[in-house]
Amino acid sequence: MEEPIRLTECDPNFIQEVAEAGGKNVQLCFQCGTCSGGCPTAYAMDYTPRQIIGMVNLGMRNEVLKSGTIWVCSSCYTCMTRCPRGVEITKVMAALKSIAIKSGIETKNKKAAAFYKTFVEVAGAYGRLFEPMLFLKFALKAEDSLTGSVARLLKDAPFGLELTKKGKLAFMPSKVKNMQQIKKIYEKAMGGSK
Fold this sequence. Notes:
Blueprint: H1 14-20, H2 34-38, H3 49-58, H4 61-66, H5 69-72, H6 78-82, H7 89-103, H8 110-126, H9 131-142, H10 146-165, H11 179-189
């Protein structure tokens, strides 16, 4: 049996916090379920996109930010393009990730959160993605021990070799021309601090 929702535990300001982080129009959702029905990663989520939007509207901050769903969202935009009310669900999921990171909230899906954080960190450092650094930093963040990190790197090595053979993996990072501008964008997106 599921726990009842206790409104005394809900945060009435959460919907505003989500809107300020970039997730607008959440209150327009009328719970039709179109987003969940079309979501290619819904099978791996602890709550469907429809449930997450409903929970945001109720102010269930802790449950939403601790859920694995926000980290499993692949940002494919299927939900957004199909939403009859124009709810920007993909942007809501990104806003929720940002809020969770800023709040230091631990999630159920630690590896997905580690990948997301690493991706943002590497892209922020170089202005674009540098895959070898992404693989290395992710292995160190996702595993609980050095042995686990080495095992993950060895597991991913064949993929890296295949990319290298096809000329798709650079050995040295290249930065964009105006890194100062990228850093400003990155800092603004991360709430003023790195």
